[in-house]
Amino acid sequence: MDPMENSWELSKENVQPLRQGRKIANLTAALQPVNGQEGGLTRVQQEKQAFEAELRMYSGDDPFSVWDRYIKWTEQNFPKGGKDGSLSTLLERCLLFFKDDKRYSNDHRYLQAWIKFAGMTNQPVDIYNFLHDQAIGAQVSLFWEAWAWELEQEGDTKKADAVYMEGIQKQAQPVELLVRKQKEFQARVARATLEGGVPQQSAGMSGTEAQRVTLGGLRGQGKKHQAPVSRTGASTKVYSTGLGVKPCAPPQVGQAFSVFSEDNPQDQVIPAPTGEWTNPPLPRVTSRENTHKPGKWTEAKIEG
Amino acid sequence: MAGVLQAAKNSITLKGSAEIVSEFFSYGINSILYQRGIYPPETFSRVQKYGLTLLVTTDNELKTYLNNVLMQLKDWLLDKTVEKLVVVVTSIDTQEVLERWQFDIECDKTMTEDSKPREKPLKEINDEIKAVIRQITASVTFLPLLEENCSFDLLIYTDKDLQVPETWEESGPHFIAKSEEVRLRSFSTSIHKVDAMVCYKNAD
């Protein structure tokens, strides 16, 4: 068998799976060791330059199409993900470029790029909040679905459900997809509450019984009121002092019940778009820290 | 004595070959169903086979279905009338074919039940099978995510003039319109040769 054909199998750990799958030809080519061509550029570098040039020269009426191809090309040709192909930088450039372009605010491809970008950040929900505020993707069911999915992952099932409702109400296209995804979501939540409810209780019970209490009172045994050997259950004093140590409650998966409150109607779960939030919460901005540029120590002066 | 045993281990009859091949399909199909998440992972249990840890379904209905198919397949392997086995993965909602695992089977037509056994060490065959199953597992590297609920179907291609059994029906090939194809490894018992391949929807 041709060794070229199966090189993907040898480096399978170095390949990040893609949602839409990979093209095997690109994958095999990307995994080949780079032949050091003297002075010349590798195939990947050449193609990258061609894309950059096309971005500058493009004069048609769908400038996003070039970006779209460029992004997909990067994904396919840098299988390792991460900083290798600097995909996140590319996405950021592209997303900011078209942020205020109304032509693309409900474009399927543009939304997909946002979703990819959100998936690469630590706070994907922030990105969706921003998009919602800017009314980007309000007509595309893909956006609502991705947003609800992230909320579900964070355990905020109530808000996730509200997001589905909002999307359906706005008649995002195709609306059937949203209806279907909402049903699947509700089935998942129902299942999680059913499955999570029963064992949670029994685990909690045995947990408190078996554990010794920190700084808890003990009942003395015998005439001399000696401390008992077994220090759980009946031998502890019932009264509780200070802060009781309770086993940490496992994160709630589904809401057992919701408290009705008059001044908390549905539309406050998801605030209406204001359009005031103009800068997207990019990770390089939101997680910025004070850093000093490295410099010569000998030249440092005390200020003041 | 040892010499006789050795000879028995390395020789393979048509019946034994059919056994090995259908056993491979049993594990292979189970692996696909597990890897691609077509059945929930908690309905699988671990078994050791071919020096690998494989997952096999514990769902009774699915087990019966697979057993029936594999029994029939074994008969056809003995008759040497089977050409292909295809596992088709379809989206339940849209009925669209998303993935197609094709196993081409070549039978040595000169072999009969009474003919002299062929020589091929069992270990060698098992190693080849192991490599195929490993590739099935590794294929997550390039396969697209199956984001919707999927079902699967087994298609078996046989010689044209074969009588269709009652429990079987004729079906179309379930091709994928714009697909990417990846050839996987193959294995051979020296009587049956199995070539594996997977097709999936193109990225764009």
From TrEMBL, chain A:
Residues 265-304 are annotated as: Disordered. SMART domains: Mad3_BUB1_I (SM00777). Residues 286-304 have a biased composition (Basic and acidic residues). Residues 51-207 form the BUB1 N-terminal domain. InterPro entries: Bub1/Mad3 (IPR015661), Mad3/Bub1_I (IPR013212). Pfam families: Mad3_BUB1_I. GO terms for biological process: mitotic spindle assembly checkpoint signaling. GO terms for cellular component: protein-containing complex. This is Mitotic checkpoint serine/threonine-protein kinase BUB1 beta-like.
Automatic annotation (TrEMBL), chain B:
It comes from the Eukaryota. It holds the Pfam family HORMA. Residues 15-198 form the HORMA domain. Transmembrane segments: none annotated. Its main location: nucleus. GO terms for biological process: cell division; mitotic spindle assembly checkpoint signaling. It is found in: Nucleus. InterPro entries: HORMA_dom (IPR003511), HORMA_dom_sf (IPR036570), Mad2-like (IPR045091). Keywords: Cell cycle, Cell division, Mitosis, Nucleus. Coiled coil: none annotated. One of its GO terms (cellular component) is nucleus. Belongs to the MAD2 family. This is Mitotic spindle assembly checkpoint protein MAD2A. It comes from Branchiostoma floridae (Florida lancelet).
